[in-house]
Design a protein that fits this description.
- The chain has 365 residues and is α/β, with parallel strands linked by helices.
- Helices cover 41% and strands 19% of the residues.
- α1 packs parallel to α8 and α4 packs antiparallel against α5.
- The strands form three sheets. A six-stranded mixed β-sheet has the order 2-4-1-5-6-7, with helices on both faces.
């Protein structure tokens, strides 16, 4: 399943440095001038999950395959992007293609790194990006409303429903509020998402701080966290500079380095997990002597849908799912122990897969 998290922000806030560290590549050129990233760079990263290590150990699996998340490094937006300033139209089109937004905010002071607005002001930076996305969404909906109104006068039920959602979103955007605040019912969500609104996407604020603030953040990041809490968004603190150093360091040296800078794990682990949570994703596992593997599904996915992530034939011919909760699997020493203790359950088509479930699917060919 192709879940994508787009990395956005003003130029020179550390987006490409963060992306390079995330993917441990130099695919995105990190340079101290705007628009050094012309095409979006795409990288897949493993979602850190220590549970997978436990499963490998218990089952003596030969291979460990973690679940993955895709990050897209999108070139820096500038004021006026919604009107085509800079490389605005191209950037905005790239943002529309992702499932969530990781908004990198400059929370560090460095006279050697130019700030496109001339000063370090996280709140103003966030407003600039949010305003450009709202203006682009507003323009898109105003143009779309005309066509929908014509269709809605006929017998086009979907057009009427879409127009209703558009008419709920437009007043918010005109007031300078993001489309994600539109009140909607669960059964309207799919149609709402089809509108392709950038300000409807969930947001993760990534506070890029100085090396000395990597453990606890600073006053700048505190302000971003307060904003995120008020919006119902998520925020994390990282030092992109530290993360880029860790990314090219031998694994054996990483723990000592992290301890020296007051960290217990790379900040990027928090970014990846936060992105995973932001998208409403959960993990289930398949385990055997050949491999222990993590699979990504959205919360609320039923067993046949979860099986379909492995192969469409699994979903079409689904019979049942042999299910063991992660805690039972590890506590009881694996599948045989869980079976003997009566903790292996047979679940049918209506079962909602839970995070950490160890599953074995039975299906008809």
């Amino acid at each position: 399943m192709g879940f994508k998290c787009g990395i956005v922000g003003l130029p020179n806030v550390g987006k490409s440095t963060l992306f390079n560290a995330l993917t441990q590549t130099a695919a995105a050129q990190a340079a101290n001038y705007p628009f050094c990233t012309i095409e979006p760079n795409v990288g897949e990263v493993a979602v850190p999950d220590p549970r997978l290590d436990d499963l490998v150990r218990i089952a003596s699996s030969k291979e460990k395959i973690p679940t993955r998340l895709t990050f897209v490094d999108i070139a820096g937006l500038v004021r006026g992007a919604s009107k085509g300033e800079g490389l605005g139209n191209q950037f905005l089109a790239n943002i529309r293609e992702v499932d969530a937004i990781a908004h990198v905010v400059r929370c560090f002071t460095d006279g050697d790194v130019t700030h496109v607005e001339g000063k370090v002001d996280p709140a103003a930076d966030i407003e600039t990006i949010e305003t450009e996305l709202m203006l682009a969404d507003l323009d898109s909906l105003e143009r779309r409303a005309v066509a929908l109104e014509k269709k809605a006068k006929g017998a086009d039920k979907e057009a009427k429903e879409s127009l209703d959602l558009v008419n709920r979103a437009l007043p918010l955007l005109r007031e300078g509020k993001p489309a994600r605040l539109v009140e909607r019912k669960p059964d309207e969500e799919k149609l709402f998402q089809s509108l392709g609104l950038m300000t409807a996407k969930p947001v993760l604020y990534v506070c890029n701080v100085d090396e000395t603030d990597a453990d606890k953040g600073n006053a700048y990041s505190d302000a971003v966290f307060a904003r995120a809490k008020a919006e119902g968004a998520i925020a994390v603190v990282v030092s992109a500079k530290i993360e880029s150093e860790i990314a090219v360091m031998p694994e054996a040296d990483q723990a000592e380095f992290l301890e020296a800078v007051g960290l217990t794990e790379p900040g990027l682990n928090r970014v990846i997990r936060a992105g995973y949570d932001l998208l409403g994703l959960v993990t289930y596992f398949t385990v055997g002597p050949k491999e222990a593997r993590a699979w990504t599904i959205t919360k609320g996915t039923r067993a046949p849908g979860a099986a379909g992530v492995i192969h469409s034939d699994f979903e079409k011919g689904f019979i049942r799912a042999e299910t063991i909760a992660f805690q039972d699997y590890t506590t009881l020493g694996g599948e045989s122990g869980a079976r003997d203790a009566g903790k292996l359950r047979l679940e049918g088509k209506d079962y909602v897969v839970q995070d950490g479930d160890v599953l074995h699917f039975r299906f008809a060919n």
